[in-house]
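We now fix the convention by which a protein and its fold are recorded. These numbers are not coordinates but entries in a learned vocabulary of local backbone shapes. A record is reproduced here so that you can trace the correspondence yourselves:
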Amino acid sequence: MQIFVAGATGLTGRAVVAQACAAGHAVVAHVRPDSGRLGEWTTRFEGLGATVSSAPWSPEGMAAALAQHRPSHVFSLLGTTRKRMAREGGDYQSVDFGLTRLLIDAAVAAGGIERFVYLSAEGVKPGTRNAYLKARVDAEAHLAASGLPWTAARPSFILGDRDEARAGERYGAALADGALGLAGLLGGRRLRARYQSTTNEILAAALLRIAADPACVDQVVRSEGLRA
């Protein structure tokens, strides 16, 4: 595969870049041009064998980047946090949905995309009042209407070594996994499989697998299908 990874510096993105390079795929890792760690990420990703793109997040900039690198697969692994929104501004709708929509439209304009892989979240459903999930509802709908071959992945909690600690996420995952373990003992195996946490490394391997699987075209892959 020739892979373009948007959100390459995130927890899941960096694992996808590393595993894709190790598997021999041609990888372009996108890093925000205004990132204070652009040089550090460039050195890190190029050391893995990836090419780094710092194209601006604009319709013209992203369309030009995709036209230049001509990926067969685009991975949209974008997301923000409350701490980052407080520090840098924006919200889930403008970042998580807005940038994903921009990337989808750029992929349509570039053409030749064999698969657009979107990292969504478990719990997505129309009519939700949760702002985080609403952004993903809108992104999934825009992707499905785009005409691109797509796959949306919906993991539950994602654990790993983050640059920014998320104590709430860790505690939430621990509590959820504990409750789901009890549910599994009581016969709720399907519930446990859907909502138990995973790691960024396991999720990255699953994303690469479903990206190459013809059976996953125009499909939502839920948490239980995202384990190695």
